[in-house]
Design brief:
The protein has helices at 2-12, 75-84, 100-110, 170-178, and strands at residues 17-20, 31-38, 42-48, 54-61, 67-69, 114-117, 126-132, 138-143, 155-158, 164-167. The protein contains four helices and ten strands, in the order αβββββααβββββα. The protein is globular, with a radius of gyration of 16 Å. The protein has a ten-stranded antiparallel beta sheet, sandwiched between helices. With 187 residues, the chain is α+β, with helices and mostly antiparallel strands. Helices cover 22% and strands 29% of the residues. It folds into two domains: 1-92, Roll (SH3 type barrels), CATH 2.30.30.100; 94-187, Roll (SH3 type barrels), CATH 2.30.30. A hairpin with a 5-residue loop joins strand 3 and strand 4 (54-61). The longest helix has 11 residues, at 2-12.
């Protein structure tokens, strides 16, 4: 409950936070961004990238979050950098955060590509592509290579293994453009 209360305060004030998921990564590899929407199941934050820009979104399982820091190494620098660049938080479309399957469906409805991390099942790797055949237990994914080429066929994965869903970032958007995918936001 304390995590949700902290998220509410930070979302209301557009506060830059460090999300720590101790069971997945140590504090040095935590995620930094601004929480924009959340539920008891998922947090969506606009992510801070290495260029000190807000670039896309990450959805994280609330159950994996062990700590939310508003003061952390370089937080003052990052905040000043964002202010000096007049960074703006992108509008988040209406996402269904009630469950993992509903989140996958709603993100895929708005974004051409998703990056899915299964950090416990497959550490250090992520799949990028499109999801389909989503059920309470699993989903299928059509994978795209870093060269914007489709891998033949669909791969099946377990819903319970998803720890992070990335979308709307410059990498996903550029890869979708190179692959000549239509932008679902402009149907």
């Amino acid at each position: 409950m304390r995590i949700l209360e902290a998220l509410q305060r930070c979302a209301d004030n557009f506060t830059l936070v460090q999300i720590v998921r101790q069971e997945i990564y140590d504090e040095a590899k935590s995620l930094i961004g601004v929480p924009v929407v959340f539920s008891t199941q998922w947090i969506v934050l606009t992510r801070l990238d290495d260029a000190i820009s807000l670039d896309g979104f990450d959805a994280l399982r609330v159950s994996d979050v062990t700590k939310i820091n508003t003061r952390f190494r370089r937080s003052v620098f990052y905040t000043r950098g964002l202010r000096s660049r007049r960074a703006q938080i992108a509008a988040v479309p209406k996402l269904d955060l009630r469950s993992t399957p509903s989140l996958l469906r709603s993100v895929q409805r708005w974004f051409a590509l998703l990056t899915i991390d299964r950090e416990n099942a497959n550490p250090g790797a992520a799949e990028i592509g499109q999801v389909g055949r989503i059920s309470a237990r699993g989903y299928a994914m059509r994978l795209l290579t870093p060269d914007a080429k489709w891998v033949p066929g669909w791969r099946r994965y377990a819903i319970k293994d998803i720890t992070r869903i990335g979308f709307g970032g410059s990498y996903e958007e550029t890869l979708a453009q190179v692959a000549a995918l239509p932008d679902p936001k402009w149907r």
